[in-house]
Amino acid sequence: MNNPMESAEFSRNPYPLLAALRAGGPVQRVRTGKDRTTWVVTGWAEARAALADRRLSKDTARYFADRPSGRDLAPAVSRSMLATDPPDHGRLRKLAMTAFTPAAVSRLEPRIREIAEGLATALAGTAQAAGGGPVDLVEGFAAPLPITVICELLAVPDPDRAAVRRWSDDLFAAADPDTADRASHALAGYLTELIAARRAAPGDDVLSGLIAARDAGDRLSEPELVSLAVLLVVAGHETTANLIGNGLLALLRDDALRARLRDDAGLLPAAVEEFLRFDAPVTLATFRYATEPFDLGGARIEAGDVVMVSPGGANRDPARFDEPDAVRLDRPAPGGHVSFGHGPHHCLGAPLARAEARIAFAVLLARFPALRLATDGRDASDGPDGVSWRRTRLMRGPARLPALLGPIA
Ligand code: HEM
């Protein structure tokens, strides 16, 4: 039987299916696994509870130890903090945090703005060369911005950035597991060499900071450093590209919202939170594995069960959000979404992702005040110039956003 969560329709609009699941209960058994019971959590309260519950493990390597062919993470990432439980998790996270602080991110902001301005200038050039015709805001802006920022964080030299982006893309999107495995090994191999070079000649980049990071005499080992560097690339690239792409689509589909944000940049932080809620970049799920039996949202989870917590489902739960399917900047408590997870594994890169998105929207709206979709937001299935969607298993965002820049400010 075809899995509806892997259909093109689900990539285009997953919300009817997530709502139908939620209507049956906030925690639903689904038949995605061949031999293990798998649950999907689409209720907001239940998602928060699951994300913070210690009886649910993130240790993919342990869980899949008996099934070398069944894995949901690249080998290098499966040893990172994302895939570890206490006490290792706390240790890895604390060490990484000493270099990856909100202050380190805010120091990066001027450089993020410079990169975004450079991309906007290149977009204008492309549009001019095409006689004012449409440009693709994903390929020309939403996708290159985050990977360039991460490469700067890790001090990846310019000529190597295209390869880093390709490996990272293949890790997620490759149709066959062999290509994904090759990309994972290539990326880990490359970052191992980069770490050796930085160790020999430290700079003021975040990677050098991570190499030097100490916590009461403790340091990151070589494999831990490589895993962390791979994690930063893969966790921060497609996710943030999807946030910018989804947010752009939401604001390009709404003329009044676009005008408000263009005229008052002070609204951008609230808009970024609402875009995160409205279209979670990690839409379908983050995974957990039950270590003991327990009850969740009326369901009996058994030890060994897989629990998929769906940010896209939780963020549209009407029990938590009024008019969940509308973009509204006047929500009483902006945020409250679980797009960055919740609890001990809450996204370490959230301040960076928020800054990138805020700057991306500010730059585009200031440079192209008359920016609009080339096709009135049509889907690609409606015509050749329409919006089309990336097809990856867990994430969602536009693959193409054809837009007309209009006169340049
Ligand atoms: C963890 C989403 C950007 C680094 C997570 C988790 C989510 C998430 C849902 C938790 C996974 C779980 O609990 O199972 C996102 C989204 C982003 C984004 C939607 C962009 C909009 C970034 C960036 C970086 C980053 C830019 C760094 C460069 C991490 C790391 C973790 C993480 C290191 C693991 C934290 C831990 O296990 O303690 N992210 N992320 N993320 N994210 Fe992000």
UniProtKB/TrEMBL annotation:
<comment type="similarity">
    <text>Belongs to the cytochrome P450 family.</text>
</comment>
<keyword id="KW-0503">Monooxygenase</keyword>
<keyword id="KW-0349">Heme</keyword>
<keyword id="KW-0408">Iron</keyword>
<dbReference type="GO" id="GO:0005506">
    <property type="term" value="F:iron ion binding"/>
</dbReference>
<dbReference type="InterPro" id="IPR002397">
    <property type="entry name" value="Cyt_P450_B"/>
</dbReference>
<dbReference type="InterPro" id="IPR017972">
    <property type="entry name" value="Cyt_P450_CS"/>
</dbReference>
<dbReference type="GO" id="GO:0004497">
    <property type="term" value="F:monooxygenase activity"/>
</dbReference>
<dbReference type="GO" id="GO:0016705">
    <property type="term" value="F:oxidoreductase activity, acting on paired donors, with incorporation or reduction of molecular oxygen"/>
</dbReference>
<dbReference type="GO" id="GO:0020037">
    <property type="term" value="F:heme binding"/>
</dbReference>
<keyword id="KW-0479">Metal-binding</keyword>
<protein>
    <submittedName>
        <fullName>Cytochrome</fullName>
    </submittedName>
</protein>
<keyword id="KW-0560">Oxidoreductase</keyword>
<dbReference type="InterPro" id="IPR036396">
    <property type="entry name" value="Cyt_P450_sf"/>
</dbReference>
<dbReference type="Pfam" id="PF00067">
    <property type="entry name" value="p450"/>
</dbReference>
<dbReference type="InterPro" id="IPR001128">
    <property type="entry name" value="Cyt_P450"/>
</dbReference>
